[in-house]
Every structure is written in structure tokens, then in C-alpha cells.
Amino acid sequence: FEEAGVLLLRPRGPLPAAREPGRVLEPPPGLGDWRARVRRDPQHFLRLCAHLDCTPDIWALHDWSAWLTPFSRKGGRRFETTFFLCCLREPPPVFPDLVEVVDCQWSSPSEATESFTSKEIWFAPPQFYEIRRLANFASLSDLHKFCLDHELEEVERWMPITLVTADGMMHLLPGDEMYLEDSNFLENLMSTEKKNAEIMKEGKKFHRVVIYSRHDYNIHVTVQSKHKHVYPKNYVVSKSRL
User: Fold this and answer.
1) Residue 56, beta-bridge partner list
2) In Å, how far are 48, 177, 182, 194 from 186, measured between CA atoms?
3) What are phi and psi of 204, to 5 degrees?
4) Domain annotation covers residue 169
């Protein structure tokens, strides 16, 4: 709410038996002033909810995935990022705060992928992986049903291992045959003089993002997902490399 102006609320009272995707309503009068107050003091958020006789709709948020920034260089910034998913029947209006959020664009997975490969926008590898994971679902209702069916399952937290190659790099993910659960790689890289294509020809058990350049990622997945989640399908931009 503070950064994007999107407020997820529901009326007070018991949850309905049938949980449907949320609806977008007109912002109540004075919401901009409330947002400024919340920025100054988070306690005002509870007062806003009381004023609207609503409660934060935490039930609309679904734990989707969690990622740790892989090691790239000493002193580099690293984060623990959790992705949540919320299903709404139509896109809500967004009011960027121009500090943490400077712009907004609603896109389907295929549209987002096209914008990335055409260099209109950029995704970090975890974001691109998640965009491709969402491409498994043909409709919002399919995605919403999956979230409801999956909400009691454990959410995996991944830390990719970076393998630097002769012509790019790979982010190796848990389950990949080259992924090593070794604390040494919390602060170190793997490296090889081989090219990406050579490494791909040698292996069979894949769960990796192959990176050739800033806007050229391939995803290779041959392992089964854990905890009943879905993994993205293989995504290869240029088959001539393999």
C-alpha cells in the first residue's frame, strides 16, 4: 500500500466458504492522505482499516516461492526475497510512490517474456524463472485453484549456485546434478573453462537458468518438483547453441 497504493482489504467477519478471486473497488475518499500518514507511522494502517470497517486481506496472499541472492562478489548486496501471489479479477489502479516503485505494467507471462527478450524491460533470473513458472497456467481460475490447493504445502527457499562459464554463466538450483549443498558456495563461485553448450551436452538432470547475456536466459528443467509445486517448462531462446 505504501509503495504502490494497492490496498488489499476484506469486510470484517468470517471468511466465505467459496474463496473467489478478489474484486477491484473504487478507492475510498481521502485514501491518499491516509497513505501519507501510514508512511510516517505504520500504526495508522490499523486506524485506516478501522475507519473503513475492514481487515487486511492476508488470506488473498499466497506464499509462492523464496529466493536467496547467490554469491557474485565479495561485498555484493544480497537479499532474501519472498514472492507472494494474489489473484484479482481485474488489474487494480496503481499509484507508484516514485521512490521504491517508479512505474507499473500489467503483463501476461508471454507478454512479460517478450518484453524481456526484446530488451524493453529487464528481469533478474529469479523473476524470469517465476514468470515462466506462471506460464504453466492457462487461466486465472486455474492459477487461483492451484494456489488454494497448494496453500498447506511447504514453500521452498532456494539459493542458486553461480557457475561461471567461458561464454556466460549458470544459476544452478536444488535438484540439478551440479548443485552442491556445500556451505563453501555461500561465499564462493564455481567456474569452468567450458562453454554453456558443452556443459549442457554432458548432463541429464537439470534445474538451471543458463545465462548468455543480460537479456538472453534459457531455463532447463528435467527434475520433478517438490511439495507439489510446479516448475517452469524448458525455455530456450536459441536452439542453435545446443
Assistant:
1) 9
2) 42, 18, 8, 23
3) -135, -35
4) yes
pTM: 0.92
d(Cα 200, Cα 109) in Å, to the nearest integer? 26
Integer CA distances (angstroms), 226 to 64, 99, 135, 155, 231, in order: 13, 37, 18, 9, 9
In a domain, 14, yes or no: no
> Within a domain: residue 115?
no
What domain range includes position 76? Answer: 61-87+121-242
Q: How far apart are CA 4 and CA 38, in angstroms?
A: 13
Alpha-carbon distances, residue 150 vs 6, 35, 39, 81, 140 (angstroms):
25, 33, 34, 20, 15
Are 51 and 117 within 8 A, CB to CB? Answer: no
Strand partners of residue 172: 161, 208
Alpha carbon distance 12, 50 (integer Å) = 10
Residue 105 is assigned to a structural domain of this protein: no
CA distance 165 to 170: 7
- What are the residues facing 139 on neighbouring strands? none
pLDDT in tens, 46-90: 999 999 999 999 999 999 999 999 998 888 889 999 999 999 999
Domain count, the chain: 1
Q: Which three cell numbers stand for residue 106?
A: 500489467
Binning pLDDT at 50, 70 and 90, where does residue 17 land? confident
Strand partners, 142: none
